[in-house]
Design goal:
single chain; about 110 residues; mainly alpha; two-stranded parallel ribbon; two-stranded antiparallel ribbon; 4 strands; about 5% strand; DNA-binding
DNA sequence: GGCGTGACTATGG
DNA sequence: ACCATAGCCACGC
């Protein structure tokens, strides 16, 4: 993956993350698959971590791992910032995991079908 | 080029 | 449900 390809990848990630509805969340792997890079879940995580500035524009707190665990919470300014943002939109977080994950989960691919 | 690392995931016990 | 393992891939040293 060269520089320009990676730039496209980054834009695609942001595009999908920006479409996640409030009160819902998705996973790194689901995003990777939706943008045509099914095995790049780790890179999705890295891209979101590098983000920082756009944190206020893009709802990166709505992205967790495949089990609904807030694996990226440490990258937010405050300790419980990620959980706070989720709780604020109605998503309950217990032990750094999203409750009723199967219900909260939002699949980008399913959304594209519609 | 080798090696370890990590906001990952699927699978088997 | 929990833990270990093994694929995965960009990146820095």
């Amino acid at each position: 993956m060269d520089k320009s390809e990676r730039e496209g990848f980054v834009r695609a990630v942001y595009e999908v993350v920006g479409k996640i509805p409030s009160g819902r969340a998705t996973s790194y792997g689901a995003i990777a698959k939706a943008i045509g890079y099914p095995r790049f879940s780790r890179l999705v995580g890295k891209v979101l971590q590098e983000n920082g500035e756009t944190e206020k524009v893009i709802p990166v707190h709505r992205v967790v791992n495949s089990k609904g665990f807030l694996s990226g919470k440490e990258s937010f300014g405050n300790e419980n910032q990620m959980a706070y943002l989720l709780e604020e939109e109605g998503v309950t977080v217990e032990n750094d995991s999203i409750r009723d994950w199967k219900t909260i989960f939002w699949d980008p691919l399913q959304e594209i079908e519609i």
